[in-house]
Structures are given as structure tokens and as C-alpha cells.
């Protein structure tokens, strides 16, 4: 259950720990863009899960 609920968080932690990067951060603007997209996708997933739970609760 833990992995099913927090899989995106676990992947984000692994992504931060690993030294490899999709686009190196030394590239201006685009280096941070891929990191930012991951954060935004993680937050969006949490928000959608929250809305789904609220809808199931009938609130």
C-alpha cells in the first residue's frame, strides 16, 4: 500500500540521489526545467489523488 500511494515520491527521491540527470543543470534554463517538471508532476499527482479521495467521500 505504501509503494502504491507514494510511488512518485519514491521515484523523485531516487532521481535526486542519483548523479545522472536528463539535462545537466549547467545548461542555462533547460537544466533546471526537467527538475521543475518532475516537481510539478508530483504535486499534480498528489492534487488529483486528493480530489479523487474527496469525491469518493462525497464531500
From TrEMBL:
**Cross-referenced InterPro entries, in alphabetical order?**
DUF1232
Q: Residues in domain DUF1232?
A: 6-40
Q: Name one Pfam family in it.
A: DUF1232
Record keywords, A-Z: Membrane, Transmembrane, Transmembrane helix
Q: Where in the cell is it found?
A: Endomembrane system
Q: How does it sit in the membrane?
A: Multi-pass membrane protein
Identify the GO cellular component terms for this protein. Answer: endomembrane system
User: TM segments?
Assistant: 7-23
Q: Which residues, by range, are in coiled-coil regions?
A: none
Output this protein's name: DUF1232 domain-containing protein
Q: Which organism is it from?
A: candidate division WS6 bacterium GW2011_GWE1_34_7
Amino acid at each position: 500500500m505504501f509503494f502504491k500511494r507514494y510511488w512518485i515520491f519514491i521515484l523523485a527521491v531516487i532521481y535526486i540521489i542519483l548523479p545522472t540527470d536528463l539535462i545537466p543543470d549547467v545548461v542555462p534554463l533547460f537544466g533546471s526545467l526537467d527538475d521543475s517538471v518532475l516537481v510539478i508532476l508530483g504535486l499534480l499527482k498528489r492534487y488529483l489523488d486528493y480530489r479523487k479521495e474527496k469525491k469518493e467521500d462525497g464531500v
